[in-house]
Write a structure and sequence with these properties.
Largest sheet: none
Strand content: under 5%
Distance between the termini: 126 Å
Number of strands: 0
Radius of gyration: 45 Å
Oligomer: single chain
Helix content: over 70%
């Protein structure tokens, strides 16, 4: 049973690694693989030269071949780092922020396009609007003159019309 779960865990880890963007870049980019191999070989050669029994400090300063191998390894590792830095990022699907923005934009459009919804929101925020009709308790002077002038005008016009 333990072997199955260990194998399942290994398979799951392999699947996760397979879809890692850096592993994808390593699989797809031949120059990147070549730079990794060059760096490994140069570092392995440099380690072999340093571990021959002599003082490492003296070898670093005196051994020109060791310095060349270290320089090659650092250049290859720099190229690897630059190439991996440009690896494609995982695409994020959705997320809370995107859903929130879509919801806000949708609500704004609904409010802008629907008069009934706009009235409901305004009523909920500020209370229901009371509808009333305004009637004046005082009469305006133009209204009384017009009323009295109208009746006089009709009588005077009625009497002054030519009979014919």
């Amino acid at each position: 049973m333990a072997a199955k779960s260990r194998a399942a865990k290994a398979q799951e880890a392999a699947m996760k690694a397979r879809y890692n963007p850096y592993v994808q870049k390593l699989i797809d980019d031949e120059d990147l693989r070549e730079n990794v191999v060059d760096a490994y070989e140069a570092l392995r050669g440099a380690y072999g030269r340093v571990s021959n029994g002599k003082s490492p400090a003296d070898q670093i300063f005196d051994d020109r071949k060791l310095q060349k191998q270290i320089r090659q390894a650092s250049a290859s590792l720099r190229d690897v780092a630059v190439s991996l830095h440009e690896a494609p990022k995982k695409k994020r699907s959705g997320g809370f922020g995107r859903i929130l923005i879509v919801g806000i934009v949708g609500a704004g459009l609904a409010l802008a396009l629907s008069e009934g919804l706009r009235k409901k929101v305004l009523d909920a925020l500020f209370g229901a609007e009371e509808e009333f009709e305004y009637t004046s308790t005082t009469s305006s002077p133009t209204a009384t003159n017009a009323a009295s002038g109208n009746s006089g005008a009709t009588s005077s016009t009625a009497g002054s019309t030519p009979a014919g």
